[in-house]
Design a protein that fits this description.
alpha/beta, Rossmann fold
């Protein structure tokens, strides 16, 4: 999720830049003024409270503002993120926004300030006043607005400077140049985020070979719970011996064991661009566990891929594999193969339903040569990276 706060004095061009950013990044625009007017016009409970306060000459309190913002965010789950225009406006509101982001399991990526000198702001707004017909576009009111903006905003900007997420662009440049510079900042921020892929497919679908090739192609780290478990068994670690029987029978290993292995990999992997998860999550519970593990590292699932192969072809592939050095413990008989496929289907369907709702699972035809399948998978991942960064 991409969350940006866009700042700038009146006349800086925030509205123009906001329109471009919303369209290009699929962001939901949050302007407290617009949201308040919407709530009032729809006569919602919050809107009626705000209307009453305004009618009596008061300022709408943060208590109402934060509820409206939270409501807006939770009601727009399909947005790729949110663009905050002029919020937070006060030092206290910075803490409100931080707390709100934490509650919603997200964070503000950066605050971008469009820097324009006061005299330029006055000039632009006076020019606008000649055509807008707005009564507040006169020099006395303009300078009062600018004075209020600078007095209230400086502490807010300093807060985000201290957090290291404050960015600034020159608002005197041409509109296209300002937008280009803002996009460069966003691109840099997005590249800091891990690109994480969950790779699904029945045993025999080729997840392992495709996952490793993808990791090499895009500089990601490939994590296979099966390979990690095998390593623990070979090392005869403290819990390796306990899981040997279950693993050889093709049964699911306890979540506690698998989570410890994945958490260890996430903690010890530095300077990676992201992860490819193969064999995890296998159950609905594990899908929530993975969300939590990634959240701990300020990350999330970026893409879900599913390799689709007909059942009879899967059985044929696994049977052929049983006669090679790549034979897995559950390949040794048709009974074990069928049992493994059934177990996978029973546990995975709820997981796929969840991911279809949240991430729109990308389905890939898993038939054909390795090279043919890889071209399809590679194209899908390249498209995913391009449209999230």
């Amino acid at each position: 999720m991409l969350n940006i706060a866009l700042f700038g004095p009146p006349g800086a061009g925030k509205g123009t830049q906001s329109e471009k950013l919303i369209k290009n990044y699929n962001l939901f625009y949050i302007s407290t003024g617009d949201l308040l007017r919407k709530e009032i016009s729809e006569e919602t409970k919050l809107g009626l409270e705000a209307k009453s306060i305004i009618a009596s000459g008061g300022l709408v309190p943060d208590e109402i503002i934060v509820q409206i913002i939270e409501k807006t965010i939770t009601n727009n789950p399909d947005a790729n993120g949110f663009l905050f225009d002029g919020f937070p406006r006060t030092y206290m509101q910075t803490y409100i926004l931080e707390g709100l982001m934490i509650k919603l399991n997200t964070s503000l990526n950066c605050l971008i300030s469009i820097d324009v000198p006061e005299e330029e702001s006055v000039k632009r707004l006076l020019n606008r006043g000649q055509t807008s017909g707005r009564p507040d576009d006169n020099e006395k009111v303009i300078r009062k607005r600018l004075k209020e903006y600078h007095e209230k905003t400086l502490p807010v900007l300093q807060y985000f400077k201290d957090k290291g997420i404050y960015k600034e662009v020159n608002g005197l440049d041409e509109i296209a140049t300002v937008y280009k510079n803002i996009r460069s900042i966003i691109k840099e921020e997005l590249q800091k985020k891990l690109f994480n892929i969950v790779l699904f497919g029945y045993p025999g679908s080729g997840r392992g070979s495709q996952g490793k090739a993808l990791a090499k192609e895009f500089g990601l780290k490939y994590l296979s719970t099966g390979e990690m478990l095998e390593q623990e068994i070979e090392l005869r670690s403290s819990f390796g011996e306990n899981l040997k029987t279950a693993y050889e029978e093709g049964e699911l290993v306890s979540d506690e064991v698998v989570v410890k292995l994945i958490e260890r990999e996430l903690d010890n992997s530095k300077d990676v661009k992201g992860f490819i998860f193969k064999g995890f999550p296998r159950t609905l519970v594990q899908s929530y566990i993975l969300d939590g593990l990634l959240k701990k590292h300020d990350s999330s699932i970026s893409m879900v891929l599913q390799l689709e192969v007909p059942t009879l072809e899967l059985i044929n592939r696994l049977d052929e594999r049983s006669r090679t050095e790549k034979c897995m413990p559950y390949d040794t008989s048709t009974t074990r193969i069928v049992k493994r496929l059934q177990t996978h289907e029973n546990t995975t369907i709820p997981v796929m339903q969840k991911y279809n709702q949240l991430h729109e699972v990308t389905k890939i035809d898993g038939r054909g040569s390795f090279e043919e399948i890889f071209e399809r998978v590679k194209e899908a991942v390249a498209f995913g990276i391009k449209h999230t960064r």
